[in-house]
């Protein structure tokens, strides 16, 4: 009995020892868990909440880029424009003389004629058949042929031309034609999507897309227009005279030139702004020639170096070096050393901006000119003047001929004398109304052409003028 009790007691002691060890092990395990694991868990949860990323909208989010309202779609603009753009074929008959045959057999003997054909594009601007194109597309044409997008062919009549802006207006006898409306080219923005529509390489109704790369671009080597729209829409030979349109299908420019060393498109093309083209068309229809509006100032565009030399804070704008007496600018209060920064809220950063704006305006229009003077911004209302008839160094004034006057005199080019101050010319019988056709053998189309050639030769070499007198006879005069 005592032995059994002893054994039971001994077993109870073993059980108690094992239980104590188990409890102690559990306490150590629980403590280790609380020390190492539960503490780390708490820190991870806190870090997650502190650096929780925000939601970022991406370009492919549903409801933005791919909605019908926001997608880029050129189909409407293309549909509005392709039927209003035409193919222009220019046929010029050239005569090649044989001087040796004429010596032996008489004038005109041995002469040969051949037809030279050129092609381009044009834009219908009225339902009754007025079409605007580039002057160089129809230059020297004896016959102009228009092919519509529906393949119908018409003969066209030249209504007027403007060499300086490279714009010509022709007319076909048709009705109910699709046509394009002019947009305000002053409102276009760099980066805006545009379409070029034309007939490159005689391919009809070709549409290419691009963006406006620059405004008021002055092309090196172009002596006339200083305010092109530059775009990267593909333009190739045959596109000249075609349409540059916005995404609404409105006309914002007439495609005119490309920048290329190969003759084909390599990245940039240039268009006459629609505001200039519209003004040219209106003048040709109303006056037969283009009237030129001027502010009555002389100067140059600013840049950083010029601004530093003049001690001017701004580096963009047109610096006024001289104000013409009794001009619109003088009467309004514009002074020498003013800097023109805006006209009618159109920003003026260069000479090209100023020249382009004025080419779109008529004489006697009133414009608001913003200038900087002594760090103060001032606004003046200026009535634009008409550019005076060009006075030649030889003592006479000149005016460009209208197409009607050229046709009446059976001429393709020439400039009319309107006022003579040179007494020697009067003694020789030169009168107002004489038409100068060439200077030193160079054909002249404008008064500026005459002055450029005379300035080049006068005082150093003889100047030879070929004229048509009032009887239609040719006369030649030499100035030494």
Description:
Helix content is 26%, strand content 33%. It contains eleven helices and 27 strands. The strands form five sheets. Strands 21, 22, 23, 24, 25, 26 and 27 form a seven-stranded antiparallel β-sheet that branches. It has a six-stranded antiparallel β-barrel with strand order 1-2-3-6-5-4. A six-stranded antiparallel β-barrel has the order 7-8-9-12-11-10. A hairpin with an 8-residue loop joins strand 11 and strand 12 (268-273). Residues 1-10 and 34-70 have low confidence and may be disordered.
Defining key terms:
disordered N terminus, 27 strands, alpha+beta, six-stranded antiparallel beta barrel, 11 helices, 480 residues, globular
Structural class comes to alpha+beta
End-to-end gap: 161 Å
Quick one: overall form?
A: globular
- Residue share in β-strands: 25-35%
Nearest-angstrom radius of gyration?
Answer: 39 Å
Helix share of residues? 25-40%
Could you describe the largest sheet, including whether it forms a barrel?
A: 7 strands, antiparallel
Poorly predicted runs are 1-10, 34-70
Count of alpha/pi helices = 11
Summary of the model, kept short:
It is built from 11 helices and 27 strands. With about 475 residues, it is an alpha+beta fold. The termini are far apart.
